[in-house]
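Title: Comparing notes on inverse folding

I've been comparing how different people in this forum approach sequence design from structure. To keep things fair, I'm posting one structure and asking everyone to reply with a full sequence. Here's the target:
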């Protein structure tokens, strides 16, 4: 059993909490200085003042050289498994071509659906592993991964099986979500209820094969209505799935209110959530997962009113929304900067939003997002002197070293192992 001591830490954020952190408490951060971390057999053995641990007999001592140390980041909303890419659409967007016109030309999400249907399981797996490696390089140690680029049984199952295989073979922890109700394909444009019925018919098999913990749906104009979403998600809830909703991204249809009504673990996007929706969110345990990268990349729409949500008492997390169409980045550090610049979140709130709250948004609050005795040693050493520096200095990678269960999986200069 290997023992490692991290010492000479500048600032240490343990993010210890008994549950998700809501409202004004998100602005309170316990910053430890002159502390050390003892790791034994991949787990946190002790977190104490350095003077109490420096003379402990260990296999390896790592000098953090005054750097910031935090838990591994948690990305609670990604579309990890997909085929192809859509860089050719950028020029069309720059020319002001409406998304619906791009869709008519065979682009948009349906382009990704075709590429994903065509790709072999091996091709999708290799691509997903590449993206996971890049996520790890940015300090992410736990992610959520959605399906949703098949919208037929064969391809949705293929995506979920790829995510499961990646979970078995990649150091990062992966939590899977079934998003078969992601859009309405050409075959079902006149009968979206039939698509929902087909996707719901897969619930038992997904459970039997342990392919997903959550079910998600895109509740939006031109996709699925609130009532359609309610019926579909209730079926998923009855089967024992956790619930998530792509809610109030473009039009305020009431997806946030539905998420609260059904006791969803999270409502995601929430860019145009109404005052009433924010109030209901604040009075619930549903976590608002905000995705500023999407609005930034598309160059239109409204950024979520994080300031109002937090001030009213909501639990907020942030995420990359990594996907090939509207947020093409694995860099959660960049999203932290956007949260500061566009969502007006404080550095303290941002750190809660990418650690403890993000972990709870994917039912991993008991194992991820905190440096705590007895937990897995998922830890990041940053090339930064303090926690405020990461969101301040945007667009670069501040990661120095990433530990996953006590093993170094990334060190500045490249991935290890």
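Reply #1:
Here's my take.
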């Amino acid at each position: 059993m290997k023992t490692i001591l991290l010492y000479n830490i500048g600032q240490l954020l343990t993010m210890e909490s008994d549950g998700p952190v809501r409202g004004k408490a998100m602005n309170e951060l316990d910053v430890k200085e002159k502390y050390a971390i003892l790791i034994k057999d991949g787990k946190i053995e002790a977190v104490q003042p350095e003077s109490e641990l420096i003379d402990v007999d260990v296999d390896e001592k790592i000098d953090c050289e005054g750097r910031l140390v935090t838990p591994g980041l948690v990305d609670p909303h990604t579309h990890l498994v997909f085929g192809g890419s859509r860089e050719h659409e950028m020029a069309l967007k720059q020319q002001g071509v409406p998304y619906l016109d791009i869709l008519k030309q065979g682009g948009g999400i349906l382009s990704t659906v075709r590429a994903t249907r065509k790709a072999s399981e091996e091709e999708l797996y290799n691509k997903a592993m590449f993206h996971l490696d890049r996520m790890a390089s940015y300090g992410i140690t736990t992610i959520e991964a959605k399906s949703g680029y098949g919208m037929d049984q064969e391809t949705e199952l293929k995506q979920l099986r790829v995510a499961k295989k990646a979970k078995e073979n990649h150091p990062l922890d992966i939590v899977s979500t079934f998003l078969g109700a992601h859009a309405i394909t050409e075959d079902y444009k006149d009968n979206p209820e039939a698509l929902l019925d087909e996707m719901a018919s897969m619930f038992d098999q997904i459970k039997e094969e342990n392919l997903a913990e959550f079910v998600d749906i895109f509740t939006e104009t031109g996709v699925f209505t609130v009532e359609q979403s309610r019926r579909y998600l209730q079926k998923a809830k009855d089967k024992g799935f956790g619930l998530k909703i792509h809610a109030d991204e473009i039009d305020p249809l009431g997806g946030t209110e539905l998420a609260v009504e059904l006791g969803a673990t999270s409502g995601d996007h929430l860019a145009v959530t109404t005052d009433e929706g924010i109030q209901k969110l604040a009075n619930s345990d549903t976590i608002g997962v905000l995705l500023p990268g999407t609005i930034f990349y598309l160059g239109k729409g409204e950024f979520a009113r994080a300031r109002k949500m937090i001030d009213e008492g909501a639990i907020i997390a942030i995420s990359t929304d990594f996907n090939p169409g509207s947020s093409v980045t694995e860099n959660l550090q960049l999203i932290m900067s956007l949260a500061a610049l566009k969502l007006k979140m404080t550095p303290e709130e941002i750190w809660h939003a990418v650690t403890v709250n993000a972990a709870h948004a994917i039912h991993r609050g008991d194992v991820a997002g905190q440096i705590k005795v007895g937990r897995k040693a998922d830890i990041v050493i940053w090339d930064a002197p303090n926690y405020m520096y990461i969101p301040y200095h945007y667009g670069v990678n501040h990661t120095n070293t990433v530990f996953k269960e006590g093993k170094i999986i990334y060190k500045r200069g490249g991935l290890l192992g």
